[in-house]
């Protein structure tokens, strides 16, 4: 491990934010010391994650029951802030990785690696490289995609699309994979693979969104192990998350601000709730609101002064550690705004025409039995999870907020709910939050601590983790919906 | 469509005519509804809302209700319903949560009447009161149901399901105030329209969302529900608790269910996903649909019977953008294609066989004794009361009873248990099996074994000699031959020595053969018979007769081939061909063999007399025997096996097949072998001879058969705490939420091999315990017990 390694070459392994990179480029000799990070997350102070005894007990029990590696990893630790959810998460993950399924165990881990590699999430890659070898995978495959069977390689296209632009998946893609031939996939296998891909794309979002730290003591350092890379820019980490009250340290003056921010949000929610009754938005207005929201999501990121990269500029800057890129092809392929492409107009995905509850579930459960129930429970759990609190306030109905978050993610993937007034998104989600959401769901590898800190300053960390869970599941569902719709079309 | 037949039904004056037909819509349909006069149908979808007139030959578009420059979301319909009292009144549920009513009597082009925007989420269902003109009910994704009076602008009352989204609402046809609603979480609720505060009754009907429900048009209180769990259930609501009366298992989640008019037990269903057909079920026969309509190319989204009193016309709309009229008599009937036959064993070996009457009649007319032929030994056909089932199809049931002397099957069990099938040289196996058969009084079988031995083993190679051969040294054949020649001369002079050596040999073979002395006797018997001049004495049938004659006739013909043919087969008795055979017994035998063999090679002299002593008895034959290649007999052996199998003694066929292994396998086609194996295994399991059946599975070379051992290898465990089975995972109890088997060394859950001390019942990971006990003799749990690991 090169933790604390301060040579420039080691520093180059870290994903840097543009500012730092510019500085670095100017002065090649700069020595950046990598602070030791403690705790499971770089964003959340360790003591926030430490829990009451009963919760720890429950978590440990869950880990015993479902963990594939047998250890309490950082993801689990952060998620254990929401034990209820953790259980359904671990259960479904365990089912995908270990229980009866059409794919052999090493395949499953390799697919997880491929999925995580799309977002350069070395944390997940490392984790699954270990598991891959442990389950009897062929070590040679870890040298890169050229070494894997053609069959797995064929999954690349769908992995790429699913990760960045799921709306482009068509039944032709499915047909290409399942058409009879030497390397064909059976439908159950394909569904299993798709579920795994979607799960790990979404999990990568969570890892970056919550600033999950690399595991502290990787047990075996065999030759195939990648160099564990912390993906957070040093400037974020240098910020200090070891200092108490990290979230507040940056801005004492912000307290007043954020307090009023919170009040304002509460106020708006209340107003929206009351308004509902006598509000008379015309239909045209409703549909334009969706379009507006869709379009606006375009500018959300580029408007941010600190972390904006015009597309082209970013591409040449993109650091892809060679360790990661060997698992993917076409690394330049990334998220492109759904609303942007004026030339080819893609139809909006009408949520009511292909819902998870009616259609997605039936299909997935038919081809890969029982996973439907587990995913269903997980989606339901995350959507309904609430403690009726908002920051310091209690007894708040947060349904509206949760729905706004969920639908906003779907909106960015071009999924529209007829019965949702997208004006609400504008009212409830402030700009910095939108920036965060968009980054975490669309290009999670660019998430920085600053983004994480800049929204909802009054909120507890556990609430922000809750937001991350929502984003993760919304993203997973969106990917699944597109993929399953393509499979359905292939079937009919 | 292709079928031009018309159906005319007289229904109280009005006459319904039509044929199976379909028409193309511009867009996928989400729902359809029929007008009271049965002459018009309305189709609604995301981008379609039209009324079609149903004419005799075709559908004719009558009205497009989707007007306006830019169609708003209010027109994106999730459901549509036509009032059954008022021909001009329609209601639609929009995906954006708006309920719209339409009045066809309006003079303007836009027929939209009223707009209710009270629901916050998509409205899934609207329903008019069956008799009241102005009452409309809606159920929405937001979990609320609302009742509207069309004379007022707002809802009259709101019902809160207190649970998740409402999927369907239906007014009861018989009870004026009652309506049923179904929910996404699997519940069904019963409401009184006058009491919006709480539901009258609630019960869980399905696992997962209940997509639809329908009240029975005649039977009061019968409610059919269909859910995502692929089931259709019929509930009786008249009793205190809702009682499930029927349950139909379909192959996909059920999207719509509609009772068939005039047929008390029939209902039509269509599915949400994957399956495009419409089925009509008789709920009393839940396994095979009574009728099936296969016209649609994509999922069917709406079904409706054309007239409330006519059971033959069904209308349907589909995602494939088509509207269809189905005629019941044009439906395909899966029952027709099914072969309704059932076969079952009773507790005491009785066999019952049910089949379609026509089939049975034909069969019994042809040959009453076919049944006997198939089960010649075990069963005879006793009674044949061709009693038809009370169901729709008439079928005949035949029962074959076990013969009174059913205990005669004892021989089967004994044989199965005592036969040796592998692990020894061929000659020994044959001898052993022949002896077993003889002891059980099955002389024919015994003779067969003896002959097999004669065919496939050269006579000089008796048990001990065989042992030496199993090593397969290249030169040993020559050696053997030489021995047999030389010893013929030497033997008389060595008489006393031979005795001695022979007993030695016996002692040795004891290690591998349980009763070698008995075998020896058999050998002697065996050879005596062969030596006798009257072959007819022991001939079993034509087959064996020819067999014998042939090899007597033709001794020198194949002589030159002998060494190649005989040696390899004997040198590697069986075991090399067998896949997946555990090495256990063979290894032992090999170990026992090898020192013996090396010894025997060292002093040929001591071994040689031993051989000769046996050969002496039938020297003349020995010479002939060894000249014939076993290949020569393979046809006969094959016929013999077929003969036994045909006779019903599949045990013999399989046993010989296993014992001879490679020698005959290629002559019998795979499928027949597989068939024999499975029959034999089935029989063995019926007699609970699990060990034998497993051995047979293991020794079989057929892929399909050896797979049997690899299927359902799950070991079920019970929780050590609550004694209940741990179903989902083997290491955690769902009920008491404890991890069962903890390792006493590392204190983690054991998910693989668990070893425990029988003294103190503590244990853990195999490796951990092994390691622990290397260093300590006490139990790792600290109970003070002195555990042992061996």
UniProtKB/TrEMBL annotation, chain A:
GO-annotated cellular components: cytoplasm; GATOR2 complex; nucleus; TORC2 complex
Reaction catalysed by this enzyme: a hydroperoxide + L-cysteinyl-[protein] = S-hydroxy-L-cysteinyl-[protein] + an alcohol
GO molecular function ontology, one term from the record: oxidoreductase activity, acting on peroxide as acceptor
Annotated family: Belongs to the sestrin family.
GO biological process entries: cellular response to glucose starvation; cellular response to L-leucine; cellular response to leucine starvation; glucose homeostasis; negative regulation of TORC1 signaling; positive regulation of macroautophagy; regulation of insulin receptor signaling pathway; regulation of phosphatidylinositol 3-kinase/protein kinase B signal transduction
InterPro entries: AhpD-like, Sestrin
UniProt feature coiled coil, ranges: 255-289
Gene3D superfamilies: AhpD-like (1.20.1290.10)
Primary location group: cytoplasm
Compartments in which it is found: Cytoplasm
Name of the protein in question: Sestrin 3
Gene responsible for this protein: SESN3
Protein species of origin: Aotus nancymaae
Pfam families: PA26
Keywords from the named record: Coiled coil, Cytoplasm, Oxidoreductase
The organism's place on the tree of life at top rank: Eukaryota
TrEMBL record, chain B:
Molecular function, one GO term: zinc ion binding
EC code: 2.3.2.27
Pathway annotation: Protein modification; protein ubiquitination
GO cellular component, one term: lysosomal membrane
Keywords: Autophagy, Lysosome, Membrane, Metal-binding, Repeat, Transferase, Ubl conjugation pathway, WD repeat, Zinc, Zinc-finger
Keyword tRNA processing among UniProt keywords: no
UniProt enzyme class: transferase
Highest taxon of source: Eukaryota
Reaction(s) this enzyme catalyzes, per UniProt: S-ubiquitinyl-[E2 ubiquitin-conjugating enzyme]-L-cysteine + [acceptor protein]-L-lysine = [E2 ubiquitin-conjugating enzyme]-L-cysteine + N(6)-ubiquitinyl-[acceptor protein]-L-lysine
Compartments, as annotated in UniProt: Lysosome membrane
Coiled coil (UniProt feature): none
WD repeats: 116-158, 203-245
Gene Ontology biological process terms, A to Z: autophagy; cellular response to amino acid starvation; positive regulation of macroautophagy; positive regulation of TORC1 signaling
Disordered: annotated segments: 580-600
Record function comment: Catalytic component of the GATOR2 complex, a multiprotein complex that acts as an activator of the amino acid-sensing branch of the mTORC1 signaling pathway. The GATOR2 complex indirectly activates mTORC1 through the inhibition of the GATOR1 subcomplex. GATOR2 probably acts as an E3 ubiquitin-protein ligase toward GATOR1. In the presence of abundant amino acids, the GATOR2 complex mediates ubiquitination of the NPRL2 core component of the GATOR1 complex, leading to GATOR1 inactivation. In the absence of amino acids, GATOR2 is inhibited, activating the GATOR1 complex.
Family to which the UniProt record says this protein belongs: Belongs to the WD repeat WDR24 family.
Subunit structure and binding partners: Component of the GATOR2 subcomplex, composed of MIOS, SEC13, SEH1L, WDR24 and WDR59. The GATOR2 complex interacts with CASTOR1 and CASTOR2; the interaction is negatively regulated by arginine. The GATOR2 complex interacts with SESN1, SESN2 and SESN3; the interaction is negatively regulated by amino acids. SESN1, SESN2 and SESN3 convey leucine availability via direct interaction with SEH1L and WDR24.
UniProt protein name: GATOR2 complex protein WDR24
Organism encoding this protein: Aotus nancymaae (Ma's night monkey)
Gene field: WDR24
């Amino acid at each position: 491990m090169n933790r604390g390694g301060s040579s420039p070459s080691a520093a180059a392994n870290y994903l840097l934010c543009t500012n730092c990179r510019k500085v670095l480029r100017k002065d090649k000799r700069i020595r950046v010391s990598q602070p030791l990070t403690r705790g499971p997350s770089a964003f959340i102070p360790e003591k926030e994650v430490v829990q009451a005894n009963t919760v720890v007990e429950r978590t440990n029990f869950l880990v015993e029951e479902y963990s594939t590696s047998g250890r309490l990893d950082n993801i689990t630790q952060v998620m254990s802030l929401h034990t209820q959810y953790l259980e359904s998460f671990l259960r479904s993950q365990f089912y995908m990785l270990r229980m009866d399924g059409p794919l052999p165990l090493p395949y499953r881990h390799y697919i997880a690696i491929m999925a995580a590699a799309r977002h350069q999430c070395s944390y997940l890659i490392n984790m699954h490289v270990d598991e891959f070898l442990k389950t009897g995978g062929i070590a040679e495959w870890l040298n890169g995609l050229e070494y894997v069977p053609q069959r797995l390689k064929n999954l690349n296209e769908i992995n790429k699309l699913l990760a960045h632009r799921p709306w482009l998946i068509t039944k032709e893609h499915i047909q290409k994979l399942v058409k009879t031939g030497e390397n064909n996939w059976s439908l159950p296998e394909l569904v299993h693979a798709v579920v795994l891909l979607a799960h790990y794309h979404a999990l990568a979002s969570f890892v970056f969104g919550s600033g999950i730290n690399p595991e502290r003591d990787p047990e075996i350092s065999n030759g195939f192990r990648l160099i564990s890379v912390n993906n957070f820019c040093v400037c974020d980490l240098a910020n200090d998350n070891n200092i108490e009250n990290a979230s507040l340290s940056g801005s004492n003056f912000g307290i007043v601000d954020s307090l009023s921010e919170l009040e304002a949000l509460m106020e708006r929610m209340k107003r929206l709730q009351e308004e509902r009754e006598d509000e008379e938005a015309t239909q045209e207005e409703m549909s334009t609101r969706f379009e507006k929201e869709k379009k606006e999501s375009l500018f959300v990121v580029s408007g941010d002064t600190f972390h904006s990269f015009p597309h082209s500029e970013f591409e040449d800057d993109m650091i892809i550690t060679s360790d990661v890129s060997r698992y993917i092809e076409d690394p330049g392929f990334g998220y492109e705004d759904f609303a942007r492409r004026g030339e080819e107009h893609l139809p909006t995905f009408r949520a009511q025409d292909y819902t998870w509850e009616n259609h997605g579930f039936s299909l997935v459960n038919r081809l890969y039995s029982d996973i439907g129930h587990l995913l269903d429970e997980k989606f339901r759990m995350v959507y309904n999870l609430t403690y009726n609190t908002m920051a310091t306030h209690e007894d708040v109905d947060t349904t509206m907020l949760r729905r706004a978050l969920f639908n906003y993610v779907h909106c960015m993937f071009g999924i529209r709910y007829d019965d949702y007034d997208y004006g609400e998104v504008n009212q409830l989600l402030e700009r910095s939050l939108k920036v965060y959401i968009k980054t975490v769901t669309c290009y999670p590898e660019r998430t920085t601590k600053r983004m994480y800190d800049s929204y909802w300053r009054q909120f507890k960390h556990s609430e922000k983790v809750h937001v991350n869970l929502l984003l993760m599941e919304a993203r997973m569902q969106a990917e699944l919906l597109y993929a399953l719709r393509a499979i359905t079309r292939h079937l009919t | 469509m292709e079928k031009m037949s018309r159906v005319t039904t007289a229904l109280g004056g009005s006459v319904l005519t039509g044929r199976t037909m379909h028409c193309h819509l511009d867009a996928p349909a989400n729902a359809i509804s029929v007008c009271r006069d049965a002459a018009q149908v309305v189709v609604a979808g995301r981008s379609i809302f039209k009324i079609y007139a149903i004419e005799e030959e075709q559908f004719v578009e009558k009205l497009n209700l989707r007007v306006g420059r830019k169609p708003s979301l209010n027109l994106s319909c999730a459901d549509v319903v036509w009032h059954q009292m008022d021909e001009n009144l329609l209601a639609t549920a929009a995906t954006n949560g708006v309920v719209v009513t339409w009045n066809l009597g309006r003079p303007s082009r836009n027929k939209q009447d009223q707009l209710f925007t009270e629901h916050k989420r998509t409205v899934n269902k609207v329903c008019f009161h069956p008799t009241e003109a102005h009452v409309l009910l809606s159920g929405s994704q937001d979990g609320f149901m609302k009742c509207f009076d069309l004379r007022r602008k707002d809802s009259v009352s709101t019902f809160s399901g207190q649970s998740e989204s409402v999927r369907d609402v239906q007014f009861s046809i018989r009870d004026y105030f009652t309506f049923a609603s179904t929910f996404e979480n699997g519940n069904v609720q019963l409401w009184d329209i006058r009491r919006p505060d709480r539901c009258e009754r609630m019960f869980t009907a399905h696992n997962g969302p209940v997509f639809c429900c329908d009240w029975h048009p005649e039977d009061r209180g019968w409610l059919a529900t269909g859910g995502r769990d692929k089931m259709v259930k019929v509930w009786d609501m008249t009793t205190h608790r809702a009682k499930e009366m029927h349950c139909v298992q379909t192959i996909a989640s059920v999207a719509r269910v509609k009772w068939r008019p005039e047929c008390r037990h029939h209902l039509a269903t269509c599915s949400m996903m994957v399956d495009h057909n419409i089925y009509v079920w008789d709920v009393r026969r839940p396994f095979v649909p009574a009728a099936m309509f296969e016209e649609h190319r994509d999922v069917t989204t709406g079904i409706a019977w054309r007239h409330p009193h006519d059971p033959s016309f069904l209308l349907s709309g589909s995602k494939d953008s088509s509207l269809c009229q189905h005629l019941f008599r044009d439906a395909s009937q899966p029952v027709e294609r099914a072969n309704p036959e059932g076969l079952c064993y009773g507790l005491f070996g009785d066999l019952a066989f049910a089949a379609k009457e026509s089939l049975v009649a034909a069969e019994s007319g042809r040959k009453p004794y076919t049944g006997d032929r198939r089960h010649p030994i075990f069963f005879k056909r006793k009674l044949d009361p061709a009693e038809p089932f009370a169901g729709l199809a008439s079928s005949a049931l035949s029962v074959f009873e076990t013969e009174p002397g059913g205990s005669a099957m004892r021989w089967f069990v004994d044989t199965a248990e005592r036969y040796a099938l592998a692990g020894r040289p061929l000659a020994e196996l044959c001898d052993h099996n022949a002896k077993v058969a003889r002891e059980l009084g099955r002389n024919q079988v015994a003779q067969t074994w003896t002959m097999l031995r004669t065919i496939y083993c050269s006579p000089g190679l008796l048990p001990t000699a065989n042992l030496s051969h199993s090593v397969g040294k290249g030169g040993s054949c020559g050696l053997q031959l030489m021995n047999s020649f030389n010893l013929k001369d030497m033997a008389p002079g060595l008489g006393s020595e031979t005795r001695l050596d022979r007993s030695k040999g016996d002692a040795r073979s004891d290690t591998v053969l349980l009763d070698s002395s008995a075998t020896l006797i058999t050998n002697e018997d065996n050879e005596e018979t062969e030596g006798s001049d009257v072959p007819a004495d022991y001939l079993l049938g034509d087959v064996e007769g020819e067999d014998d004659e042939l090899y007597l006739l033709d001794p020198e013909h194949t002589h030159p081939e002998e060494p190649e043919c005989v040696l390899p087969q004997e040198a590697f008795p069986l075991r090399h061909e067998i896949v997946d055979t555990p090495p256990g017994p063979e290894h032992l035998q090999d170990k026992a063999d090898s020192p013996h063999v090396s010894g025997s090679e060292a002093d040929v002299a001591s071994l040689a007399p031993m051989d000769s002593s046996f050969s002496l008895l039938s020297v003349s034959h020995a010479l002939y025997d060894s000249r014939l290649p076993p290949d020569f007999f393979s046809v006969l052996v094959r016929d013999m096996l077929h003969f036994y199998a045909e006779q019903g003694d599949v045990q013999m066929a399989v046993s010989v097949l296993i014992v001879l292994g490679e020698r005959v396998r290629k002559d019998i086609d795979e499928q027949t072998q597989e068939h024999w194996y499975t029959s034999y295994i089935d029989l063995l399991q019926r007699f609970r001879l699990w060990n034998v059946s497993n051995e047979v599975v293991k020794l079989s070379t057929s892929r399909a058969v050896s797979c049997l051992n690899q299927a359902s290898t799950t070991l079920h465990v019970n929780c050590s705490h609550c004694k209940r089975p741990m179903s989902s995972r083997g290491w955690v109890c769902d009920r008491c939420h404890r991890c069962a088997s903890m390792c006493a060394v590392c204190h983690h859950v054991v998910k693989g091999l668990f070893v425990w001390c029988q003294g103190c019942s503590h244990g853990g990971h195999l490796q951990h315990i092994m390691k622990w006990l290397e260093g300590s003799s006490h139990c790792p749990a600290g109970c003070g017990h002195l555990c042992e690991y061996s």
